[in-house]
């Protein structure tokens, strides 16, 4: 009883190791027939016997005069027509097969119980012809073959055995994980028939799914995973979408050249057009390739991410990446990628990553008839191929100075009108003065905006620099400055909300947050910085002095400095065209140049 238990345990353990397909291995079998004297009369490869006798398949491995090597070439050529990546993998394994095989004579291979149910003719038996295992120790071989049986087989059986071992190597891999040779024998048999050559792509993928293999090729040889999700077919020969395999190469035909490529999937699936053409982006393994981009034959070279390409159904370029040279009316230089509409219009570019704002490799944009470097992440274009300057750093440089715009506004001629949320830099006004610009990142102010004249010089900007003319003094606080086309100061607005600016009217200096000037430098408007009882300021009119609120908006006649408009700080009697009149505190009043007052708003 104990002996029976021990024997059963050992048999169970042997089966468990055999099922693993790693240490014990899997292999091919032969139907061996012997005469009464136990002499071998015939040896037939079991996969072929099973196909003909059990499933009535008609095998065709080519002419009888072909060597087994030629027959194997024929079989792999069949596979290549419908599944190039699998054929390429099998050919690679076949190229090293004999180096990895050990042929033994005078010994029988230990039977591997991976065959499953079946039958053999009377007087014949099933013998282990080959064993395959993962090489683990020095001296081990991946394939061990019984040479005594091998020498008695015809070329069909030899070619069939080798194809069996190649299929089995895939089947028992970690990726596929099969533990016996049942599916391998069936797939080997089908591949050895003439009917296999006429099989549709859909039928072939159904065959692979039936035999529990996990990968296949869509039309064009594009590798797909058929085990993770449904394969969507347009018809028997064309797939619309399937699960992508991004790490397996395939042959990509372009302009009569064959390139090695991989899927550059942005999602889990690879997609195709109804015509069968690949819709997803491909990564090209090449140093360069010539592509038609915006009507020009363009040589695209490999970049940080290689060369990648996405096509429209008419095979025109939808997107190309790598290192793409462009030469347009308002843009030129080398970019990381271009996106083109179906109408052939440039929609978007992506920039290379340059950390140096003065890198000579930066592409250029034309503004005001001059070319300026540009950098950032991407740049969009309108239907006329004019840059839209959204969500990127526009890098304007002039006389060695630089400014970056996170958002820019342009007129219909492509001239820059405004730059918003820019970085610290330097720029010039029309009079040639260079100003240090301030961005919102250095101060807690949102929406800081820089504006330009048509010639590209500054018209409005933010700076920490001192601003001076005969009637203005400032200190180093952030301020908004606008200038006249001549470059003369037009207005200054302090953004620190403390007394850091004074403006002179009729020989008297007034503290102000805001001041506006004529082009000749005379004060036209003031906005004081103080309110309350200590914020009262006095201006002159032709009829005397008037007290106004210091933090209100005050206007003066530039040529005379007389008060033009203001808010009264207290009740006052003023001269009007109809005589004197008492005006209430906080009244908004305007004056004519002759000094007569007019009530605008009565509080």
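Q: What amino acid sequence fits the structure above?
A:
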């Amino acid at each position: 009883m104990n002996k029976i238990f021990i024997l059963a345990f050992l048999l169970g353990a042997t089966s468990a190791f055999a099922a693993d397909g790693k240490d014990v291995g899997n292999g091919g079998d032969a139907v061996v027939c012997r005469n009464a004297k136990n002499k071998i009369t015939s040896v037939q490869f079991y996969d072929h016997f099973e196909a003909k006798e059990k499933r009535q398949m008609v095998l065709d491995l080519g002419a009888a005069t072909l060597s087994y090597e030629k027959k194997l070439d024929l079989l792999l050529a069949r596979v290549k027509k419908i599944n190039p990546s699998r054929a390429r993998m099998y050919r690679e394994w076949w190229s090293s097969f004999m180096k990895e095989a050990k042929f033994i004579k005078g010994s029988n291979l230990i039977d591997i119980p991976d065959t499953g149910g079946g039958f053999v003719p009377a007087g014949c038996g099933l013998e282990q012809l080959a064993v395959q295992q993962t090489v683990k120790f020095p001296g081990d071989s991946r394939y061990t073959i019984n040479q005594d049986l091998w020498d008695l087989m015809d070329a069909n059986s030899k070619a069939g055995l080798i194809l069996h071992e190649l299929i089995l190597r895939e089947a028992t891999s970690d990726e596929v994980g099969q533990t016996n040779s049942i599916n391998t024998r069936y797939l080997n048999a089908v591949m050895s028939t003439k009917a296999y050559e006429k099989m549709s792509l859909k039928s072939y993928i159904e065959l692979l799914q039936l035999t529990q293999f996990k990968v296949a090729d869509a039309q064009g040889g594009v590798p797909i995973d058929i085990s993770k999700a449904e394969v969507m077919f347009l018809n028997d020969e064309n797939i619309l979408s399937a699960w992508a395999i991004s790490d397996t190469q395939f042959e990509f035909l372009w302009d009569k050249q064959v390139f090695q490529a991989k899927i550059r999937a942005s999602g889990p699936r690879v997609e195709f057009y109804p015509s069968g053409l690949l819709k997803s982006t491909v990564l090209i393994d090449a140093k360069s390739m010539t592509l038609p981009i915006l009507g020009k034959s363009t040589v695209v070279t490999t970049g940080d991410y290689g060369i990648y390409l996405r096509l429209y159904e008419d095979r025109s370029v939808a997107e190309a990446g790598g290192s793409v040279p462009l030469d347009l009316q308002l843009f030129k230089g080398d970019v990381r990628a271009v996106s083109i509409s179906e109408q052939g219009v440039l929609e978007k570019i992506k920039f290379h990553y340059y950390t140096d704002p003065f890198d000579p490799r930066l592409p250029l944009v034309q503004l005001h008839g001059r070319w300026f470097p540009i950098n950032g992440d991407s740049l969009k274009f309108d239907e006329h191929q004019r840059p839209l300057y959204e969500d990127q750093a526009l890098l304007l440089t002039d006389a060695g100075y630089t400014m970056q715009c996170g958002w820019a506004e342009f007129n219909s001629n492509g001239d820059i009108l405004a730059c918003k949320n820019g970085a610290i830099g330097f720029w010039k006004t029309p009079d040639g003065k260079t100003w240090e610009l301030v961005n919102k990142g250095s101060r807690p102010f949102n929406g800081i905006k820089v504006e330009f004249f048509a010639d590209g010089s500054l018209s409005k900007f933010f700076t920490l620099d001192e601003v001076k003319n005969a009637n203005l003094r400032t200190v180093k606080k952030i301020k908004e400055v606008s200038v006249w086309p001549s470059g003369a100061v037009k207005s200054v607005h302090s953004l620190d909300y403390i007394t850091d600016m004074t403006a002179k009217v009729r020989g008297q200096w007034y503290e102000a947050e805001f001041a506006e000037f004529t082009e000749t430098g005379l004060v036209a408007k003031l906005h004081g910085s103080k309110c309350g009882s200590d914020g009262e300021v006095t201006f002159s009119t032709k009829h005397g002095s008037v007290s106004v609120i210091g933090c209100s908006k005050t206007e003066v006649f530039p040529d005379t400095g007389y008060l033009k408009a203001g808010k009264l700080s207290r009740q006052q009697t003023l001269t009007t065209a109809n005589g004197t009149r008492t005006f209430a505190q906080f009244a908004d009043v305007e004056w004519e140049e002759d000094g007569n007052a007019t009530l605008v708003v009565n509080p």
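Q: And what stands out in the fold?
A: The longest helix spans residues 2-20.
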